[in-house]
Specification:
The protein contains nine helices and eleven strands. The chain has helices at 8-25, 31-47, 68-82, 89-102, 114-122, 135-144, 183-196, 210-220, 234-238; strands at residues 4-5, 53-54, 62-63, 109-110, 127-130, 152-155, 168-169, 178-179, 204-207, 223-227, 246-249. The strands form five sheets. It has a three-stranded parallel beta sheet with strand order 9-10-11, with helices on one face. Helix 1 packs parallel to helix 3 (68-82), helix 1 (8-25) packs antiparallel against helix 4 and helix 2 packs across helix 3.
Amino acid sequence: GTLTTFSSKNFRDFERDYKERLFKVTPFRDRKDFNYAWMSVVAEVDKNPGEYGWSPQGVIVSPVYADPYSRCSTIGPRVLDNLGIPSSCERDYILDSVFRQGYTDLRVSLKEGVPKFLENLSKKGKVYIVTNSALNGVGPILARGGVNVSDLVLKGNAQKWYLSGTNSREIEGFPRPVFMDRSEYYYVIQSILTQEGIDVEDLGVIDDLFEMGLAMPHDEGATVFHAVNPWVPDFEKNVTLGLERAAPVNCLEEVLDI
C-alpha cells in the first residue's frame, strides 16, 4: 500500500494458503494437474504483469502486482479456466469464499517513518486518508504504528476499483487503457473538496498505484504523487514521469520537498 507494507514471507504464505484453499474447495481433485495449472498461470502472469490484474467487472481494475489480494484474485480464476471449470455463479461463490477466508491472514504494518511523515504533512495542510478498507481495520493499524489519528480524517470503503463506466485513457508507457469512471472514489474526492472548500487544482493525492489511485484524480485536475513500491514493474514506476502535475517519489518523505 501507500502507507502500509507486509513481509515477503507473509506474501508467500498468503499465496500458498490461498492456493491450498482453492484446491480443497474446487470439484477438481487431481493434485498434480492442479499444481501444473497453478504454476502455468503464475509463470505467464509473472512474465507479462502488465497484461494481468483483478477483473471483477470484465476489465482490469487493479494490477496483478498491486498486493497479494490482487495477485491471488487474478491467478485463481485463470487456474480454474485452465482446469476446464467454467464461469458460473457457483464458481464465483467459490472464489469469493476462498478469498474471504484468507483476507485477515495478511499481517499489514505501517512503513518505516510513516508517523513522522504524516505529522510533517499535517503541518502543510489537512490530511485525509482514503482507503478501500473498512475504517474499523485501518484505525487500529495506524494507532499501533504510532500515528496520531486525531490529526487526520479517515475515509473508508472508497472502492477505488469500482467502475461505473467504460471511459478510458491511453497513457504513454502504460501497457493497457486506464479506466477513469470510478464513481465511488470520485464521490469521496468530491466530498473532500466540499469539506475543505477548495478546487480540485488545490488537491494533492498520494498513492502507490497509478491506475487505481491516481489516474482519475489527475484526470480531474489534481496534482498526484506516485509513491512507487520497489517490487512493481518499470512501466508502473515510470508512468508519471511524462505527466504534468505528477511526480514519482521513491519514499514518502520526498513529497514534503516538492
